[in-house]
């Protein structure tokens, strides 16, 4: 579906803002293949009858469609409803042959004065123009003004970071003004529902200085940094895989107290040979995007930490591999080369993870708003809620519902997009 969105609003400084987003097919031979240059010409011809000033122009390609964003102001005097209608009509007549559809939205001076800025990040293996235009429609229907839309993939192609030759997913960043925070819940709910229908990850964050100025990143380990629950892997070696896996799943779903579940699982590992640890560590598979994420964070000078309800042996293994600063996890009690099955130290549960996050931040003189926390299980929720940016990664339903943000379709490189980094910047940092 080809769309264009026309947004009108007044501000304290300028009487009228006009935000114009349009997408048309670029297929050769198609009569509608007018391209961004022709499209801009048609837009400005239609607006030439009005005394408007150009504030900003952006052009990008989404799913082989040309998208133009023009932000205009009318500074001479406030426009009447009739004048706004005439402006919309002129734009519509000029573009009627392009198969475009115009949507309108007005925002009052008072609304603009009290508006809050937010950033919406879209991430996915394939983001269509139809999806993007639907997102814009939801924004306009929820008392919000679309100010800009930009691609985080440079040159509109998938960029391949040098490190590990991993391809990055597509991503776009939309800047909006929300007239009243009371509308945020409905806006977020509708956007997430829409994104789920298209298998797209979507995050909406308040646009403030500290959004991009994070300094500490804390991660769960099992099923977050690695594609396994280590205790389940150890249980398989001990011949009790099914019993332990069932207890693990109940704990991650929040159906069983973590401490209780951990003690039960540990008891089933009694007698396991110490030599198995290295065997299990060597076969662990990193989650998608982990190496690109850590290469970038390390280059940017972030402090990084593993806060895990798993075992310190495997945390240390990942620490050496990824250059992680801190590791806090449970200790495996081993006597004469055998796992005792006993818990001999304080269990790293949900509350402990949150406390450790705060401790590291305090020791490093880092504001909690500058902390990222990522996890997948119910025992990660306390630290996700404590951090300025808490992200549930391919998490259990309870965790996704409770966390402020979630990543379900792309890899952990999505964290970098949420920080506003482009693929070109990631490339440069991971060379």
Describe this structure in words.
The structure is a single chain. The protein is α/β, with parallel strands linked by helices. 36% of the residues lie in helices and 25% in strands. It contains 16 helices and 18 strands. It has helices at residues 35-47, 81-94, 109-114, 129-140, 184-197, 230-238, 241-252, 258-267, 276-282, 290-299, 312-322, 350-363, 381-386, 397-402, 414-418, 423-430; strands at residues 4-9, 16-25, 53-62, 65-74, 102-103, 106-107, 116-124, 144-151, 170-178, 201-206, 216-219, 303-311, 326-330, 334-335, 338-339, 371-375, 389-393, 405-407. The strands form 4 sheets. Strands 1, 2, 3, 4, 5 and 6 form a 6-stranded mixed beta sheet that branches. Strands 13-12-11-16-17-18 form a 6-stranded parallel beta sheet, with helices on both faces. Helix 6 packs across helix 9 (276-282). It starts with a strand and ends with a helix. The model is unreliable at 1-20, 26-33 and 156-165 (pLDDT under 50).
């Amino acid at each position: 579906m080809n769309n264009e969105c026309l947004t009108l609003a007044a501000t304290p400084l300028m009487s009228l803002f006009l935000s114009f987003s349009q997408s048309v097919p670029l297929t050769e031979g198609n009569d509608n293949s007018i391209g961004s240059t022709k499209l801009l010409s048609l837009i400005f011809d239609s607006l030439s009858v009005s005394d408007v000033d150009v504030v900003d122009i952006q052009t990008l390609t989404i799913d082989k469609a040309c998208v133009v964003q023009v932000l205009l102001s009318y500074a001479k005097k406030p426009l009447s409803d009739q004048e706004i209608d005439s402006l919309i009509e002129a734009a519509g007549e000029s573009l009627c042959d392009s198969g475009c559809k115009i949507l309108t939205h007005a925002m009052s001076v008072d609304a603009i004065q009290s508006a809050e800025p937010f950033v919406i990040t879209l991430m996915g293996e394939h983001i269509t123009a139809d999806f993007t235009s639907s997102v814009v429609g939801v924004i306009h229907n929820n008392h919000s003004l679309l100010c800009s839309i930009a691609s985080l993939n440079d040159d509109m192609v998938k960029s391949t970071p040098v490190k590990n030759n991993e391809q990055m997913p597509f991503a776009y960043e939309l800047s909006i003004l929300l007239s009243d925070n009371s509308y945020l819940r409905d806006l977020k709910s509708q956007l997430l529902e829409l994104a789920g229908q298209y298998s797209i990850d979507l995050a909406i964050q308040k646009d403030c200085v500290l959004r991009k100025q994070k300094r500490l990143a804390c991660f769960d380990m099992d099923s977050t940094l690695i594609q396994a629950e280590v205790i389940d892997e150890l249980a398989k070696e001990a011949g009790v895989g099914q019993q332990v896996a069932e207890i693990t799943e109940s704990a991650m779903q929040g159906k069983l107290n973590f401490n209780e579940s951990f003690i039960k699982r540990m008891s089933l590992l009694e007698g396991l040979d110490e030599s198995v640890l290295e065997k299990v560590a060597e076969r662990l598979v990193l989650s998608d995007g982990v190496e690109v994420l850590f290469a970038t964070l390390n280059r940017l000078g972030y402090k990084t930490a593993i806060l895990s309800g798993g075992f310190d042996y495997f945390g240390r293994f990942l620490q050496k591999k990824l250059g992680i600063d801190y590791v806090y996890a449970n200790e495996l009690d081993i006597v004469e080369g055998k796992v005792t099955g006993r818990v001999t130290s304080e269990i790293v549960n949900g509350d402990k993870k949150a406390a450790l996050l705060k401790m590291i931040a305090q020791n490093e003189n880092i504001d909690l708003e500058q902390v990222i926390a990522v996890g997948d299980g119910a025992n990660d929720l306390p630290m996700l809620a404590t951090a300025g940016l808490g992200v549930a990664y391919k998490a259990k339903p309870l965790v996704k519902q409770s966390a402020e943000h979630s990543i379900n379709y792309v890899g952990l490189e999505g964290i970098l997009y949420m920080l506003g980094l482009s693929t070109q910047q990631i490339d440069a940092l991971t060379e």
